[in-house]
Amino acid sequence: MVLRKIRTWLGAAFFLCITLLFLDFTGTLHHSLQWMAKVQFLPALLAMNVIVVAILIVMTLLFGRIYCSVICPLGVFQDVVARLGKLRKKNRYSYSKPLTWLRYVMLAVMVVACGAGLGAIVSLLAPYSTYGRMATLLLQPLWQSGNNLLAYFAEQMDSYAFYSVSVWMKSLTALLVTAATCIVISILAWRNGRTYCNTVCPVGTVLGFLSRFSLFKVRFHVDKCRDCSLCSKNCKASCIDFKTHSVDYSRCVACGNCLSSCKFGALSYSLPYMAEGGGSSGRNGRYDSSRRSFLLAAAAMTTAAMAQEKKKVDGGLAAITEKAVPKRQTPLAPPGAQSLRNMTRHCTSCQLCVSECPNHVLRPSTDLQSFMQPTMSFERGHCRPECTRCSQVCPTGAILPIGRDVKSSVQIGHAVWIKKNCLPLTDGVNCGNCARHCPTGAIEMVPSDPDDESSAYVPAINEARCIGCGACEHLCPARPFSAIYVEGHEEHRRI
Question: Which of 177, 184, 208 is nearest to 64 (CA)?
Fold first, then answer.
């Protein structure tokens, strides 16, 4: 019982903090909580974070799949839905044979997709990223709307404790895919508990293979078992066969439900010599549950790390709406991505950078090759040279950490002038917005007729100095298409 409570509280703490990390639009929580994204198994593997991967493997070899029941947010989400389903009917599970062939087929698909750079397939199978999209695209708009409601009421009382934020649809296609995924996973969890974890999830398959060799396992004390079947009926992983007194350790997530449901002490989370035929440890033949719980808690918390930085307040400019998205020949990847190829091969589309972007520049891609991976567009803001938040929170190495001094010299693209849209030529008015707001001085206004100083002044772009931040595109007053837009580079350069 103590084991189950500790697992539940730790899982709830991880789940709540990771959810808040995705929902936070102020930029305050990512300083202290971003490590939770970086201790997820697949992101750490793609980022080649050897220390984190080694810790997770050792934890699994010692204690079984506690990663799945404590650290993985999608796993805890399924537990929450399964708990709601259990209110309808108790003791509703039963043992089922493992679909081993399906599990390894899905793992093979994931390995091939990672090797081939098929980001769309990787994003659909990655458990952490699946939950990240659900939190960003489904929950964050509701969270922001609630904040705006509080801001409205606070304003009526002359209080500025809250401020309104822009709530907008980042991608209809990604939203529909995410909603469908959420519905499918929720139905499976409502009906059968951890079905998704143990039939589809490739991370669950890898850790399940390792957990077969774990030191601590749920073990039967055969002489105490009364074949009441309560353990099987409460196992949300459907991995306990009470008739043969066996546990499929590749599916067991060490949740502790079976231990708390057994009324005869026939199950223990123990070492090998403590089970089989009534073996025991501790006083009166009982295994010390407090020691078990301590070991589980210690293992789950070994990945904890915290980092604090000063909060950056982004001043912002007045919002300019109703901009149309230009058709770019080459998509824009954030500074720190290094190249479109690096982004495609490492990104799992978790949407953490999208949810954390304070300038509303990042949104899910609708391109098939990079489906739901972040891409840049400047209808709602531009990529400020002093902002490096996306590089700080990316857990997979798709966007590598960079400093502010480096970011201001990274060229992710270059500005392109569209003569037919430029207001000085179409409307006969003076403008120069693009030149005034260019942070690198890459744009200057020159006469449209070199031989006539009194002719309309239009922008001239120095591509060697342009970093592709999008300030010119965002602040161009031309509608619906800007008279200047940023074309991406496949390989980023330093200037």
Answer: 208
Instruction: Give the pLDDT confidence of 334-356 residue by residue, as tens digits.
Output: 999 999 999 988 899 999 999 99
CA distance 426 to 448: 12
As a whole number of angstroms, the distance between CA 109 and CA 124 comes to 11
Instruction: Give strand pairing partners of 461.
Output: 443
Identify whether the C-beta of residue 234 lies closer than 8 Å to the C-beta of residue 91. Answer: yes
pLDDT of residue 139 exceeding 80: yes
CA distance 43 to 49: 9
The CB-based long-range contact list for 455-461 (8 Å cut-off, 24+ gap) reads 456/424, 456/425, 456/428, 456/430, 457/424, 457/430, 457/432, 458/417, 458/419, 458/422, 458/424, 458/425, 459/417, 459/422, 459/432, 459/434, 459/435, 459/484, 460/417, 461/414, 461/415, 461/416, 461/417
Mean pLDDT, the chain, rounded, equals 85
Neighbouring C-beta atoms of residue 493, cutoff 10 Å:
12
With vertex at residue 28, the alpha carbon angle to CA 26 and CA 31, rounded to the nearest 5 degrees, is 140
DSSP 11-34: HHHHHHHHHHHHH--SSSSHHHHT
For residue 83, what are the CA distances in angstroms to 91, 151, 193, 196, 385? 11, 34, 9, 15, 46
Please list the residues that pair with 67 across neighbouring strands.
none
Q: Which residues pair with 485 in a beta bridge?
A: 416
- In the 8-state DSSP scheme, what is residue 68? I
Q: CA separation (Å) from 273 to 41, 215, 221, 259, 470?
A: 31, 11, 11, 18, 65
Q: Is the dihedral of CA 209, 213, 214, 216 positive or negative?
A: positive
Three-state DSSP at 355 gives helix
Question: Does the pLDDT value for residue 284 go beyond 60?
Answer: no
Tokens describing residue 375: 């891409």
Is residue 277 exposed (0-12), middle (13-18) or buried (19+ Cβ within 10 Å)? Answer: exposed
Q: How remote is the C-alpha of 365 from its chain's centroid?
A: 15
Q: Where are the alpha helices (DSSP H) in 338-400?
A: 340-346, 352-356, 389-393
Q: What sign results for the dihedral spanned by CA atoms 280, 283, 286, 291? A: negative
pTM for the predicted model, two decimal places:
0.82
Pairing of strands 410-417, 443-447: unpaired
Using alpha carbons only, what angle is made at residue 432 by residues 430 and 435, rounded to the nearest 5 degrees? 170
